[in-house]
Amino acid sequence: MVKQLSKHSISENLKELLSSVDHVQKIEKNRFLFQEGEDADQMFIIQSGRIQISKISPDGRELSLRICQKGDIIGELTLFTDDATYLLNAKVMEDAEVAVIKKDYLERELLTNTELAFEFMKWMSEHFRKTQTKFRDLVLHGKKGALYSTLIRLTNSYGVKRPDDILIDIVLTNQELANFCGTSRESVNRMLSDLKRKEVLEMEKNKIVVKDLQYLKDEINCENCPIVLCSID
Question: What residue stretches are annotated with the HTH crp-type domain (predicted)?
Answer without folding.
Answer: 141-214
